[in-house]
Amino acid sequence: MKLAILACLALTAAAARADDGVVRLHAAGSLRPALTEMAQAFTAAHGIRVEAAFGSSGTLRERLEGGEAGGVYASADMGNPAALARDGKAWPVVTFARNRLCAIARPGLAVSSATLLDAMLAPGTTLGTSTPRSDPAGDYAMQVFARAGALRPGAGAALQAKAVMLTGAPGSAAPPPGRNVYAWHVLEGRADLFLAYCTAAREAVAASPSLQAVDLPPDLAVGAEYGLTALRAADPRTTLPFVLFILSPGGQAILARHGFDAPLAPH
Hints:
The protein is an alpha/beta fold. It has 11 helices and 9 strands. Helix 2 (32-46) links the parallel strand 1 (22-28) and strand 2.
């Protein structure tokens, strides 16, 4: 794993003080519960506030590329933060969490991992996804479709044709306050099945127990690596302590509690 981000900033981090400012965090929406808890724990430990903006990783990258002030960027993929690093706007990228794709099924839909591909291909089934390029979850869904096409000729094209992109774009419909976006779309009838992160499926079922979270079968399974970086223009005296906190055993334990595979967590 690349830890150059730590080496590049370590010499100035020792001077961090509570009055040095705030950490401006841009993070994937799937990280909201975990990083909200982590930000609160970090502020309690270090006295440095965290101002968080959550959204689709691609949209957040575009905002940072456009000059929006940022400190730490936590993406649901490696490509978006790597693009900032290549452009000289960010330090090298660290893998700090992993996720995978699951399906959220509407109430009453009889489906299992073994029958999931048949259910997605069924003519009467509406399949929801996020928006590719804007949101990595949509890109991961396209990878699922490619795997389906390798299993059954024509299946990938059929799934792409019927997929309804309901989340992840700047103009995507937002749920009422307090509603889980995936549960809202499925319960409102806009999708019978929704391909989303397994952490998001877990949250949707917790919010609406009539829904079902379905694991993808091994032949369709797609994993997601989450990349972490800091913006070069930001003050390392505030950003580096937060990066270190996310990578610490305590930070990794918070990610694990929220359903992520935390690669640096002690085992």
